[in-house]
Structures are given as C-alpha cells and as structure tokens.
Amino acid sequence: MKPTPLTLGVIFGNRDFFPDKLVPEARADVVKLFGELGLQAVMLDPAETKLGGVETHNDARKCADLFKRHRDQIAGVLVCLPNFGDEKGVADVMKLSGLNVPILVQGYPDDLDKLDVIRRRDAFCGKISVCNNLRQAGIAYSLTTKHVVHPLDASFRADLQQFVAVCRVVRGLRGVRLGAIGARPGAFNTVRYSEKILERNGISVTTVDLSEILGAAGKIADADKRLVAKVDEIKAYANATAVPPAKLAQMARLGIVLDDFVAANHLDATAIQCWTSVQANHGCNVCTSMSMMSENFLPSACEVDVTGVLTMYAMQLASSSPSALVDWNNNYGAADDKCVLFHCGNWAKSFLPDIKVLNAPILGSTLGVENTWGALDGRTTARPLTYGRITTDDAAGVIRTYVGEGELTDDELKTFGNRAVARVPKLQKLMRHVCREGFEHHVVMNASRTAPILAEAFERYLGWEVYHHEAPQE
C-alpha cells in the first residue's frame, strides 16, 4: 500500500538572544526533507511572526490558531529547535490548539568551532527544557535517537519516518470501524472481548447476524453480472483450478455480500464467523474472500476475533503492508526459538507466493470436505517478522498488548493450509508471558520491522499496556 500523504504541523522554536538566521536555515532544511519524503507541512509564514518562529506567547497563539484551522489534516507535530527555543511557547501551542497528536522533538547540534555568539545554538540544553514543559503539561511526546541531530542527517530521516508511522497508527486507531459478522464459534471463549472498552478508546464495532449475510448471498442469481465478475476476480487472485464451478460461485456470492456490507457500513476491517455455520448452511469456506480483503487493506480475521483484526489493522498502518492472523500452533522439533504458525487458511496473498484455493482437511473431517472449498493453501517464505496482539482486559477495564520481532524462515515444513516457520528470540520466555497473562492463541504477523512503532503508538499515545518482547536497549 502506498501511504496517503501525511501532514505534520511544524513549530520552529526561537529565543530572542540567539542568532535569528538559524531559523530560516532550519525552515529550508525541513522543507527539503519533507519534499523528499512526500510530507505536507503546516507552519507559520515568516510574515506572521518573526521568521515564522514561536518566540513569544503571542506567537504561540498565532501558531495554535493556524493548527486549529488545519486540525483535520494534522496527524502529528514536529518541534524543531534551531537554537535553545522558547520552552513555554511549544507547550502553549499544543495546549491552545487542542491537538491530541504525536509530537516529535528535534534539536540541532552545535559545531565545536561555532560556539560564538554568531552561530551558537544551545539546542542540546533547550530540548531538555521543552520536554520538561511538555511533561509538566501532561502532553506526550517522542524523542529522536540522537539527543541533537541535524534534520538532513540519516539518523533523523529514519526517526522522522518512524514517527510518521506512529502518527498513522494513532490516527488510524482513533475512530476505526470494525465489523463483527456472526457470533464467535461456541467453542472459542478465547476470542471474547469487551466492546465497551473498545468504544471508550474510540474503536466502534458494527455487528450483523451471519444469517443476513448468507441469506443475501443465496439470493444472488446465476446470471447476475456481479457474480460473473467476482468469479473472474477470484480466478485472477489465486490458482482456483481445483475448485468445482458450483463451489466457486458460492464463494463469489459470499464475497459480493461481504463487499457490500463493508461499503455500506464504512468499515475498516472485519472479523467473521468462519465455521461451522457457513459450511453447513452455505456449503463453502469464506477464507478466500477474507484473504482478498486483507490483501486490499481491509483486513479480515477468522473466528470473529475482533481484537485480532484490530491488531491486523494496527500493523497494516505501521508497515503499509498486509497482516495475517495466525495461530501460535506447533513447536518446531527441538528448536526452542522456533515454532510453526498456521491457519487453514485466509492469509493475504502477499504471504503466499504459491497460493492455491483448495479445501480445509481439518474442518472437512466433521463438516464434509466438499463443504470446505475456499480455504487457501500456501507456504510463507523467509522474510522479516513483526508479531503482536491487542486484547481487552475486562477485569481491569484496560487494553493490553504485546509486540516483538523475529523472522520467518525457509526451514522444511510438511503440512497443509497456510503455514510458516518463525524464529523468535527467547520464544520460551514469550510463550510464558502469553500464557501467564492470558492472551489469546491467535497472534498477528506482518512482514516488517515495526514493533518499536507499535509500542510507541500503543503506550505513549493511546495509553495501552505494552509488553515489548526483547525490546532493543535504548
């Protein structure tokens, strides 16, 4: 997915007894970097305040008014300190604007041969004061890897790209709309969740009885042009040569109705009752439709795992790539740091270079294999891995999460369905945490290195509990 252009507010801090020419130089640096990264900026014009900086309370009010006018566009704020800056002004802008968005604080480094009054910056010190004032005001903020760093330094470029991803996650999860299609399978208490806790966090859930979906699918006639088009779409998406034509049509009918439900309710993601009613009452699996939605950045999770699909959506926002819901399923022989990830399966096509539409042997053992056409078969190849999980803790009234990184490997694996081998450092420690804290057996995987982004967004800006497994030492 190519991310849509993101807009950041920019505050240039200034202090009157430091060199003014440092401010327009900083503006030029930021404009250059934003242009290279495809970012939009909302910042004071040099005609509105001295050099377009924030130096006084009046300047802060002007900047806050500017941010208010663009509040629907601004996803985050960059605080740029060409010199010491006005520590109160930055906090005043955020308080007066009412923006509740991530903030990144950057300060310029001094040159050892330019510590005279003409080029002296002191942003090393000023950044500490700005952060102190933000903390006093209860305003969350993020930091750069280096305490002071030039905006055109590669380190800051990476910091800004990570910050932009944090902004995407925070903005995307505040107001996300999820669909719960059908009741959870009766045997799966593990996917229970608190809709009220989600609602308090700005996450809404739209529910529908599965009978409404199956009923609408059954009314689509064989000659319906949309049915023909959906069958063609499935064939273009994956190798479906083994699927009986009647079953392919059943899969297509489900896909049409699901597309309609998502569009009518403006949903960002769905969690679906994928067994046993759909097989018993419609005669096929819904996996292929779910895979196609996930590949098209409308993630879909099986077994009505609502917080699972919320995790899929969060990881998609962080990485700009599809996610998949998987089971922590099997040990990998005697390897303590490896395991098998599995589902029967509905993973996005991005994970399955050898994707085929087949049936589901496990479900077929009780439901009849002929009723399970539509499950995907394919093996995920070696690639980076970010994994994680969001869950609601009803007893405590909070949202808890864990995230971490590892890798997917090409180790031999002889089985069916959607499958992968994962290597996770200190996997046994992670499994103890998952079990001790009562997390679900479902986890979400994404082919990226985005765990720090998710941890920062979840904990610092959304206020959720985070366990970052084997987090890099800061």
Mean pLDDT, to the nearest integer, reads 95
Helix content: 25-40%
| N→C terminal distance | 30 Å
Number of strands: 18
Second rung of CATH, namely the architecture of the largest domain: Alpha-Beta Barrel
Structure class: alpha/beta
Global Rg:
25 Å
The coarse overall form would be elongated
- Give the percentage of residues in beta strands: 15-25%
Q: How many separate domains make up the residues?
A: 2
The strands making up the biggest β-sheet line up spatially as: 10-11-16-15-14-17
Largest sheet: number of strands, sense, barrel closure: 6 strands, antiparallel, barrel
Number of helical segments with 4 or more residues: 15
**CATH topology assignment of the largest domain:** L-fucose Isomerase, Chain A, domain 3
The low-confidence parts are none
CATH class of the largest domain: Alpha Beta
GO molecular function, one term: L-fucose isomerase activity
Protein name: Fucose isomerase
Pfam family, one: Fucose_iso_C
Domain L-fucose isomerase C-terminal: 341-468
Protein described:
With 474 residues, the chain is α/β, with parallel strands linked by helices. Helix content is 38%, strand content 22%. The two termini are 30 Å apart. The protein is elongated and about 80 Å long. The chain has 2 domains: 7-173, Rossmann fold; 177-468, L-fucose Isomerase, Chain A, domain 3, CATH 3.20.14. The protein has a 6-stranded antiparallel β-barrel with strand order 10-11-16-15-14-17. The chain has a 5-stranded parallel beta sheet with strand order 2-1-3-4-5, sandwiched between helices. The protein has a 4-stranded parallel beta sheet with strand order 7-6-8-9. It has 15 helices and 18 strands. Strand 1 (7-12), helix 1 (22-37) and strand 2 (40-42) form a beta-alpha-beta unit. It comes from Oleiharenicola lentus.
